[in-house]
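The methods section describes the discrete structure representation at length, but only in general terms. Each protein is reduced to its one-letter sequence and a matching series of backbone shape codes. I believe one specimen quoted in the main text would settle the matter. An entry of this sort, consisting of the sequence and the corresponding backbone structure tokens, reads as follows.
***
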Amino acid sequence: MIELRPLRQFVAVAEELHFGRAAQRLHISQPALTQAIQQLEYRLGAPLLTRSQRRVALSPAGAALLPELRRLIAAADALPGQAQAAAAGLAGRLRLAFVSSIAYGPMPAWLRSFREAQPGVQLALREATLDVQLDAFAADQIDAGFVLHAEGAVPPGLVTSCVLREAMVLALPEQHRLARQARPSWAALAQEPLVIFPRRIAPSLYDAVLGHYRARSATPVIAQEAIQMQTIVNLVSAGMGIAWVPASLTQLQRPGVVYRAPAGEALRCETSLVWREPAPPVVQRFVDHVVASPAAGESGAQRPQSAAINHPAPRARPRRRKPT
């Protein structure tokens, strides 16, 4: 194993092409420098310098090695700063998963501002539903994730911070009779075929949707299931039924689909940022960035077409729950 010190000494001699000046630059004696270069040449098995009474020059091996040694020394000199940046969460890699609905909400702005604030952090993004994310956490494949769930029903076993609370709204085929109503009534929509996600990908929200029907003495007629919210909206466009979607998804303007807020008490959902403890510095820095963002908290949709959906957006008061 070759230490960095003799490499630095060789670089000094190679740049000065004079043992005396190089020794002064390194603050060592000339005999000690000469001996160090000789030992380095012995360990490398090749002469690095050619010497005469009048001049010192680089050998072919020394000339070939010099650029590599400069890069190696520069990389070694950068290590303390890199270690300190990683310890402070200013550098490293963040593996982040997210449900599709948050991509239509504030997540793009959070990612953009985080990358601007922390250019040394590499983001590795993965779209995944709650069930996939839980498996990925167990396999140590992700560091944090945005998950969708019913109001107050955070997933167990993780630290959580609610970053978005919003109403669920109806996605309707544009030519549907209910699309002509500003706020469709429950009596009108209770028996409409429903397009919904499978229970396994968001069990608390699935149960909340069905519970919303049962609380009104209605039984939902499930016509079709689809995993991604975009696919659900596409199926609505195809006339397969109506669907409940987070209000932020009204940003997805699919031809043939309109969004309506139903009459009466709103069904609500939450998106939480989840991670494990102890959180690596880069994860904690991302959590702090998102929680401090003015975009976090209560949200309503932008007004799509004629849908009357508008809610205030106060500053988030995140909730954290540690594993039990």
